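S.,

Sequence below, as promised.
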Amino acid sequence: MQTTFPRLLLEHARQRPDAPALREKEYGIWQTLSWAALAALVRDLACGMAASGLSRGEHVVVIGENRPRLYAAMLAVQALGAVPVPLYQDAAAPEYVFPLNNAEVKFAVVEDQEQVDKMLELRAQCPQLAHVWYDDPRGLRKYDEPGLLSLDAVIEAGRAFAAAQPGFFDAEVAKAAPQDVAAMFFTSGTTGNPKGVVHTHFSLLDRAAAGQAFDKLTEREEVLAYMPPAWVGQNIFSYAQWLACGYVVNCPESASTVTIDLKEIGPTYYFAPPRIFEGLLTSVMIRMEDASKLKRGLFHHYMNVARRVGPALLDGKPVSLADRLAYRLGDWLVYGPLRNSLGFSRVRVAYTAGEAIGPDLFSFYRSIGVNLKQLYGSTETAVFVCLQPDHEAKADTVGVPIAGVEIRLSDSGEILVKSPGLLKAYYKNPEATAEVLTADGWYHTGDAGFLDGGGHLKIIDRAKDVGRLAGGAHDGAMFAPKYVENKLKFFPHVKEAVAFGDRREKVCAFINIDFEAVGNWAERRNLPYAGYTDLAAKPQVLELIRDCVEKVNADLAQDEKLAGSQISRFLVLHKELDADDGEMTRTRKVKRGFINDKYKVLVDALYGGLAEQYIETAVKFEDGRSGSVAATLKIVDAKTFPAMRKAA
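The prediction came back faster than expected:
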């Protein structure tokens, strides 16, 4: 798409001035901002930022939840030829030091007092950070810091600046070219410092337009923006595609009201990682377990009909008249009310990405009439590489290459991608750029996989994580930790898992239980517990998780290549893995190497044949305090199965 983000904004404002662009729920009431009003706001903000000294090519960090004025601030930054850098709002202050200094950031746009405090705390380590502009003034009335200013004050200054230089804004927007840098996203940093992924207007908008054409998106779509704007997935769906399509983006009041807001908005286009879909289904099943016997019976009867008939109907396959009638009755009694309860009554297209989604979970949503599909991409590819077409959604693939994308496999099985959406470079990191971008334009994804007979891409694991067992009965067998971990996480009682086995004779695992799901399971069995650590150590819970592990092992035994990856021993961790403790990234990817080092005593106990192991772990609480959690963890042996050999 040969245009820029600010030009698209002005085009929408010219063609559809009164159409809604953004909605924000405030004090329980949805407030609407039209395209014309948004364009005026962006003009004022850009002029105010220019008056404060922001110039072309400089970086501006943007930190906060999805808020209309933060979106407007990103557009204002781009209008001046500067580069917005969204960062995760839930990160601790020290996590901002590297990106702020790496990108030489002088300007920050933040949401509220919490983020202001983080920026002020960092000024000694980031002395170049001269200006901090905030949206929400609550709690900041008595702050007196140099360069600290409300967005309202920036807007007022912008109006005065525009009155003195009336042609300034339009002239700045006209200077931008599609190949100019439009945004920078910092990667998760699972192994060391995060890398700044540099994208142009063209790379982001071209992929947004490709996704738009693939799913026939229009300006009539409704989207709920509730994931962190720093995550490239949310940024593409609620920013790049928003401007490419001109649809309405709705910003929830708070994280705690998302479920209610989802029902009120009834999005037509929805995007979430698997854990969100898992959480929604878990809440449904918990409520269903507490329902009357009649309602439970009705639910389970019609869900059996849905599993048998629903996916076929959604895929346009032939279904008997009797099954159609049974499904229609089930839709009236169960599926329709259930979709309404979930907020999916109007969903036309729903996508999940970021992790593998369990076949049962995937099938559940499709069986009740939600057109849930999978996609494949990354920050470096501007998300859209492969998407599943309607009527071709499969649980074990991530779709077909879409317009403009070429895929080939290296000799080692790594997926290589060529696309108009590829990153321009890693910021100030030519060595890392050269590692992932070949001279002839192929991007090394780092993922191992293959294309099936129908042209759909299958992902096995991260190429660097695929290892080999050493010694024992499965010497030399493939070990794909992510594949094993995802199979465990398909169970609602398992929240996270970390598998070990590379260059070892067997596979062992750490497991985090899902506190809500297992807590409900325990309460229905009158099993008392006092918090996560206590619940995780219950013998009954260990047996519950052992059953999940052994079902995974039975499944792995069906695959001759991966039969060696069956889990021989496991333990349930005494605490949840947490980004604040350095164990996960902000996008909830486990830092396997860090965890291996931090919990070495537990890994040694698993492989040393011990029956239990004491451990004390330092933790950070949400209010910033530090503490520790101690427990003696039981180590559980799991049954493994002989590999099923395929008939010749």
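The radius of gyration is 26 Å.

Coffee later?
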